[in-house]
Amino acid sequence: MILTKEQQAILDGEKGETLAKVMKTLVMYGDAFEAEKLVPITSKYNHLVTSFGLKVMSPVYDLMQKLLDAGVASGQQFSVDPRPLDKNVPANFLQNLVFNKFMYTKQDFYEKQLKELGLMNDDAFSCTCYMDEMGNKPKMGEVLSWAESSAVVYANSVLGARCNRNSGIIDIMGSIVGYVPYFGLLTDEGRKATWIVKINTTKKPEAQLLGSAIGMKVMEDVPYVSGLDKWIGTELNDAACAYLKDFGAATASNGAVGLYHIENLTPEAVSLGAKLIAEGAKEYVIDDAELERVKNNYPVIWKNPDAAPKLCFVGCPHLSLEQLKDWTVKLEEKLQGKKVVIPTVFTAAPKVLKAFNETEYAKRLEKTGVITSYICPLMYMNNPLCKTMPVITSSNKLRTYTSARYYTDAEILEAITNGGKR
Amino acid sequence: MKQFKGRVITPGEVTAEAVVTTEGFNTLASFQMALQFGDKEVKCGDQNNKQLHGKPLINKALCLPQTIGSTTGGLVLYCACAMEKNPACMLFASHIDSLAAAGAILADVWVENVSMPVIDCLGDEFLNYVKDGMKITVSKDGTVTVE
To answer: Among partner residues A165, A169, A253, which is closest to B78 by beta-carbon distance?
Structure first.
C-alpha cells in the first residue's frame, strides 16, 4: 500500500505508539484486500456497531481505554447501535437478574467511555442513525467507516455513500486516523452488480422476505434488482425508504450484502442504469413460489413448534416514524378498542420515538397495549433464557441470529390481534 | 501428506489438529456462548453449523471457506484471542472476508503473547482434502502441510 507522508509518519510512530498501532491495523486490513491506498473519511459523523457493555467483551473496553488513555480519541463524533436494555420491555425476574447482574454489567462503564470517545448525544443509540430525526445521514459519495451491517447497506444503496462491511472496532480505528483502506465498495468497480435479480411476483413482495431470498442467493455480491419499482415506485419517499431499510437489513443478515441497486429507484441505478451491471452477471428470478419456498425453509428451532408466542418484536432494524403511524392505524382497525393478545414491543430510535410521542398516534398506539422501546431486540434475545422463549417477529435479521420465528407483517398483525377476535 | 500454499494474513508457525467446516463459519454464533459462560474447550455454539456444533475450537486448526454473520464477528474473534480461547490457526480456502481479517489483525496488533497464524486463498482442494483430526502444520511463508 502506498501511504502519504502524513500516513507514513503516523505508522512510524511520530504521533505516538498507540496511533501507530491504529494505523498498522488499518494498513494490514487494507493489505488483506489488496488496497493500494488509504482515502479520507468524508462523512460528518461516524457510527459504531458496539453498543453493549457485555462482561464477556472486556477486551474491547480495555482496548477503548488504551485509546482514551493515549488521547487519540476521534475528532469525529458518532452514533452507535441501540442499547441492549430497557425497563419498558417485559422481562421476568430471572431475565432481569441475568441481564443486570451477569451479562450487561459493563453497560454504564462502556457508555461513559463512548461519551469520552465522542458520542453525539445521549439519544444517539440506534441501528437507524440515518433517520432524519437522528441526524447522522451521510450524503451521496461520502466515504464512511461504519460497521453496522444494516446501516452500511442502507448508506451504500439508498444514500449512495461509500462504505465497506467493516467489523466492529475497525469502525472507530478508521475514524481516529481519518482514513479507510480503498477497496471493495469504495471503488467504482466494486460497486458493479454481479447479479441481476428479476422480480416477477404477482403482488408487492414482503421486504424482509425478498431481502432474505436475495441475500441467501448472492451472499456478499452486489445485486441489481429489476421489476421492484413496479411495486414500490420510482421515488425515494418515506414508504420506499422504509421498505428498502427492511429489505436491505435482510440481505445483509441472511447473506452478506453491503450494496444493492434497485432499477429506477436507488441513486446509482437511476444515474447509471444497466452500466452498473458487470460483464457475466448471473441471473436470479424471483416469483411468488420462490418467496414461498424460501419462507418454508426457515428452520423452527423452538422446543415446542406449536407453543403459543409469549412476545413479539417489530422493529429490527428500528422502525421509522411513518412505520409507527402505519402500524397504529392497522392495529386500531383490527382491534376496535381492544388490546393486543401477545405482549408486543415496537422498537425505534430514541429521537424517532420522541417525535412519535409528540403526535396524536402515540396515545392511540398505547391504547392497543403495544409497548414502544429504543432497545435492540437482538441484544435482548442474545442469552440462553430467550432460547426457550417462543418469540415471534417480522424481522428476518432477528430470525437469523436468534430463536425468534419469522412471520410477515400481515401475519404478525393477525397473530397479535387474534385476527380481530377475542 | 499434502502441502498447500496460501497467503499470509497474520504470520506464525504452529502444529495442531484440524477441525473442518465446508460451510461459512459464523463467528458470533460459534463463540458467544463459550466465551460468555467460560467453556474451557470453547465448543462451537452455532447450532446451524452441523459440522462444527459442539466440537472444541480452542487450540485447533480451524479450516473453513470464509466467516459469515454479524459485523461484530471481528471483535468477537479479537476477544477470543485476548482471552486465549482462540483456535491455534485459521485456514481459509477462499479469500478472507472483511470480518475475519479484522479480528485476526486486531489480535495480531493489539494482543500481546498470542499468536494465531491466519492463511487464506488455500483453494477448494484444501477444503476437500482436509478432514477432522488430521495433523496440520503451518509455516511462516503460508505453506500448510496436512497429514
So the answer is: A169
**8 Å CB contact of A168 and B75:** yes
Low-confidence ranges of chain A (pLDDT < 70): 420-422
The pLDDT-based confidence of B22 (bands split at 50, 70, 90) is very high
Q: Are residues A90 and A128 in the same domain?
A: yes
Query: How many domains does chain B divide into?
Result: 1
Å between B7 CA and nearest CA of chain A:
9
Chain segment B46-87, per-residue pLDDT in tens = 877 899 999 999 999 999 999 988 888 999 999 999 999 999
A316 and A404 belong to one structural domain = yes
Cis peptide before A317 (omega within 30 of 0): yes
Report d(CA A102, CA A100) in Å as an integer. Answer: 6
A422 is a domain residue: no
- Which positions in chain A have a beta carbon within 8 angstroms of at least one beta carbon in chain B? 21, 24-25, 28-29, 32-33, 49-50, 54-60, 62-63, 66, 103, 147-149, 152, 164-170, 184, 220, 253, 256, 299, 301, 382, 384, 401
Parallel/antiparallel/unpaired status of strands B135-138 and B143-146: antiparallel
User: What CATH code is carried by the domain that includes residue B108?
Assistant: 3.50.30.10
Nearest-10 Cα torsion for A413, A419, A421, A422: -50
Contact A127, A150 (CB under 8 A): yes
- Report pTM: 0.95
The amino acid present at A385, given as its one-letter code, is: L
Tell whether A240 and A388 lie within a shared domain.
no
> Last residue of some domain: A162, A186, A210?
A186
Domain that holds residue A289: 189-296
What's the pLDDT score for residue A420? 67
Are residues B111 and A59, on separate chains, in Cβ contact within 8 Å? yes
Task: Kindly report, residue by residue over A339-380, the tens digit of the pLDDT.
Answer: 999 999 999 999 999 999 999 999 999 999 999 999 999 989
